[in-house]
Amino acid sequence: MIDKINLNKMLDIGVALTKEKNYDKLLSLIISVSMDITSSDAGTLYMYENNALNFKIMKNNTLRINLGENGDVSGLPPVPLEEGNVCAYSAINRKIINIPDVYNYNKFDFSGPRNYDPITGYRTKSMLVIPLENHENELIGVLQLINSLDSNGNIIPFNKEYEYILMAIASQAAISISNMKYNQEVKALLHSIVSVFATAVDARTPYNSCHTSNVSKYIEILIDYINKKYCKGEIDIYFDENRREQLILATMLHDIGKLIIPLEIMNKETRLGNRLDTILNRFDYLASLWYIDFLERRISKNQWESEKDFLTKAKQRVQDINTAVCLTDDDIAFVNNLADKIYTDADGNSKSYITSQEKECLLIISGTLTDNEREIMKTHVNFTEQLLTKINMIDNFKNITLWASLHHEYLDGTGYPKQLTAKDIPFEARILAVADIYEALTAVDRPYKKSVSSDDALKILFSMVDDGKLDKNVVNLFNDSIKNRHII
Fold this sequence. Notes:
This protein is α+β, with helices and mostly antiparallel strands. It has three domains: 7-181, 2-Layer Sandwich (Beta-Lactamase); 204-264 and 372-483, Orthogonal Bundle (Hypothetical protein af1432); 273-367, no CATH class. The protein contains 17 helices and ten strands. Strands 1, 2, 3, 4, 5, 6, 7 and 8 form an eight-stranded antiparallel β-sheet that branches. A two-stranded antiparallel ribbon has the order 9-10. A hairpin with a 5-residue loop joins β7 (139-149) and β8 (155-156). α1 packs parallel to α5 (160-203) and α9 (276-295) packs antiparallel against α10 (301-323). The longest helix is centred in the middle third of the chain and has 44 residues, at 160-203. It is elongated.
């Protein structure tokens, strides 16, 4: 038995292969461990993809080559699955190939090393090739080791016992790679589904078509800035790969509940929305009624002309109020007077010039939504939570639903839908709230409001800090990240 390969080392290798979560580091670990065990001077790890063996890691201690982890191997052509190549033969037949001296072995084409060695001064001699198969007997890749060295640095054949040891390691490695690929495929599927939902939400209305992508952009800028300050030792907040991924996915899904909100509310760009034409048509109808009264001599010509003039001006006034940024006292008085005016329809029923709903819409002080419509709009957060709760999130993504559903909560308890206070609002949800508000303030695709400059938006965020609604630390970091985004 080979003394240096003991049970403890084998167990350590198995644990290391199982614990490694980074794909590139896992591949590098596989070849490093294999070279260490066999005292190999060089090695190459191929992955089986698209019916060929693709270079992933290439190391040569003598020539100081370390490609794949510290260098790019994308320029190296893949090895076709043809039995004339030793690695391809091992992959096709799932056999270990142990060659004492490739120069004295004619079963495979070794013209490459024979031609390349004289150029570099290197001598390719002993070789051990092992196929990597997972637990379902699927080919994952091939491990090629070159030039086993004795304690004096002399090239020797690979010991036969290495084959059994490396087969065990290769099996563990293949399973680890398969599991990691499976996890990557699951993640890729989740990301694609999230992207579809985010696109659907933004595409549903032309008035915030870039909202999700913009908020995600600001979140990424902030995370990068936070991590940069952490690396400088300036703060103790850090977003590792999983925390970053969860927050970005939560950002992309934070408005998924808007899929449930009626379009007449989502797309309401003026106070009246689709009610305007009803009012204008009613005023034309009223003008016709007054004209009939004049023709039938129930009113005088002066009365008819007065009413006609009032209705003509009222139509324009309603249209102006419908799109006004803010209402004057005179506007409010006009709307109230309009609601108090009564007419008798053709059936003899008394009716107001405008309905109570139309009056409520025209008297909206800020924005375009009535109180009831605003409450309906707020329910998108509840729907976000309900929809995401139905997704069976794996542990790595368990925080997505929570963070996404709390992006309208304020530290002072005045947010919605749960009126949470600071102690119950996670740091990530605080970040999402700030980015969401900033995007809404600076957005240029909202017809119901004017966008504000970045500087003014940041001032508003700080005023909300003063009011106890937003996290001061988050707003400070966000402010700095936005102002330094081009030099991060």
